[in-house]
Amino acid sequence: MSDDLDTPVLDDHLHLDPRHGRGIEAVEEFARVGGTHLLVVNKPSWLLGVDVEAQADFRRGFEETVDVVTDATDALPGRAWPVLGVHPGLISRLVDDRGFDPADARELMCGGIDVAAEYVAEGRALALKSGRPHYDVSDAVWDASNAVIRHAFERAAAVGCAVQLHTEASEDLTDLAEAAEAVGLDRGRVVKHYAAGRLAGPIPSVMSDRDRLERAAESGEPFLMETDFVDDPDRPGAVLGPKTVSRRVRWLLEEGHHDAVRRAHVETPAAVYGIDTEATLND
CA–CA separation, 56 vs 23, rounded Å? Predict the structure, then answer.
């Protein structure tokens, strides 16, 4: 921990690309300003140049993520964990660009979830990622996407892990929390990535701008903090940079939100993912 941040600092959702982006350099920057822990999400398959045809094709991105997490842990005072799954935007690439039937696209994406769940079961990943498009799609694609989410919930319940969701912007995703509970996954293990400051249903992983964080801090409810750093040299200003979570933690502490900081970086990670961000610090 840095001298003025006497707390673990977790970025709940970011990407690392050691082949094309900043990779471990971004991790080192995160650590220099007080960052301690990371949840690293695999990049979408098409950004790695992979046109998936079978579920095994997802392994390339998963293996790259697991490898970079090992290197990230070496660069952190805490540690990093992989979050693996299938980006919901893949269904549009399969259906619109490659001529897949929505049912066939659903089957392939569920296969990718199955592979990701194998990594969790083996202890090589912490959680799953799934979701549905945040843009207008046909009813068939929407239904197929929700079926992929339900499959992710089923696999998460079976292997005992959380699910991070990429969805449309909303402050009420009770339908997804109820869908998780219907297959045996506690709604407290469902996380809405790129969330606003308040959310009904899943746990919000709040984008780290001040307005959203102030609402989350004042709500008294569980929340996480993230940047969604994309590590893409062609999009250097996209989303938020790796320093942002630490800077916002410092701001929250200056504003007197000590309980909220502990909630976001110690209590909620423990409840959602079963991780101990204090015990995993190398002081």
Answer: 25
- Where helices occur in the chain by DSSP H, the ranges are 24-32, 59-75, 90-92, 102-121, 139-159, 174-182, 210-219, 244-254, 258-262, 268-273
Q: In Å, what is the CA distance from 267 to each residue of 73, 98, 180, 247? A: 21, 44, 22, 20
DSSP string, 76-97: SSS-EEEEEE--TTHHHIIIII
Three-class secondary structure of residue 207 per DSSP: strand
> What is the structure's pLDDT at 1?
44
Q: What angle do CA 265, 7, 25 make, to 5 degrees?
A: 80
Domain boundaries, the chain: 10-273
- The encoded tokens of residue 120 equal 């969790």
Angle value at C-alpha 39, between 64 and 255, nearest 5 degrees: 150
The number of CA neighbours under 13 Å toward the Cβ of 208 is 29
Span 104-129, mean pLDDT? Answer: 98
What is the Cβ-side half-sphere exposure of residue 168, based on CA atoms within 13 angstroms?
A: 13
| pLDDT tens digits, one per residue of 39-51 | 999 999 998 888 9
pLDDT digits (tens, 9 = 90+) for 231-258: 998 887 678 999 999 999 999 999 999 9
Class of domain 10-273: alpha beta
Residue 3's pLDDT band, with cuts at 50, 70 and 90, is: very low
The span from the CA of 196 to the CA of 209, in Å, is 9
* Cα–Cα dist 129/126, whole Å: 10
Contacts of 197 (CB under 8 A, 6+ apart): 204, 206, 211, 212, 213, 214, 215, 216, 219, 223
The reported pTM is 0.96
